[in-house]
Amino acid sequence: MVASPRQRVVTFVQRRLANPLMRAVPIQTLLETTGRKSGQPRRTPIGGRLEGKQFWLVSEFGDRSQYVRNIMADPRVRVRVRGRWLDGTATLLPDDDAQARLAALPRMNSAAVRAMGDNLLTIRVDLDG
Question: I need a surface site. Which of 15, 77, 99, 100 has the fewest CB within 10 A?
Answer without folding.
Answer: 100
